[in-house]
Amino acid sequence: MCRNIKPLFNFDPPATDAEIHDAALQFVRKLSGTTRPSKRNEAAFDKAVASIANCARELLNSLETSQPPRDREEVAAKARARSAMRFA
Question: Which is nearest to 5 in space by CA: 78, 24, 15?
Fold first, then answer.
């Protein structure tokens, strides 16, 4: 899985459209093997990003859990701590 794609479900506040778009963009980049498509493939690339973002939003809206929402700042702090230990 791409390292830059982060879990977006069950957070308070919920995932924004920008976060979902960024995750979709990373996914399409990984599949296509390129960060920027050629002019010829730009429309297909953009269409794929939009389609995946819509599917991801639909998925996040339909998922259910009995767990309380996670705090974004708390999760980010834990990730920073793990990164500091890993790269120190």
Answer: 24
In tens, the pLDDT along 44-53 reads: 999 999 999 9
Looking up tokens 């459209």 gives: 17
Q: Are 51 and 75 in contact (CB under 8 A)?
A: no
Inside any domain, residue 52: yes
Number of folded domains that form the chain: 1
Q: What average pLDDT does this structure show over 23-35?
A: 93
Does residue 8 belong to any structural domain of this protein?
no
Q: Does 43 map to a domain?
A: yes
